[in-house]
Amino acid sequence: MMAAVTAPLAGERVLLETALRDAIPRTGLVRHYETVADYPRRGGKRMRPMLCLAACRLYGGASADALPAAVALELFHNAFLVHDDVEDDSTRRRGLPTMHKALGTARAINVGDALSALAVVSVAKGVRCWPAEVAGAVSIEFAHLLQRTTEGQATELAWIAEDHYDLDDGDYLALVREKTCWYSTVHPLRIGALIGSRGRADIDRLNDFGFYLGAVFQIHDDIENLQAGPDYDKDALGDILEGKRTLPLLHLLRTASPSDRSLALRVIGPHGSGAPAERTATVRELMDRYGSIEYARHFVDALSGLALAEFRRLFNSFPASEALEFLFTLVTDLGKRTRRYSRPARVVPA
Amino acid sequence: MMAAVTAPLAGERVLLETALRDAIPRTGLVRHYETVADYPRRGGKRMRPMLCLAACRLYGGASADALPAAVALELFHNAFLVHDDVEDDSTRRRGLPTMHKALGTARAINVGDALSALAVVSVAKGVRCWPAEVAGAVSIEFAHLLQRTTEGQATELAWIAEDHYDLDDGDYLALVREKTCWYSTVHPLRIGALIGSRGRADIDRLNDFGFYLGAVFQIHDDIENLQAGPDYDKDALGDILEGKRTLPLLHLLRTASPSDRSLALRVIGPHGSGAPAERTATVRELMDRYGSIEYARHFVDALSGLALAEFRRLFNSFPASEALEFLFTLVTDLGKRTRRYSRPARVVPA
Question: Considering the entire predicted model, what is its pTM?
Answer without folding.
Answer: 0.93
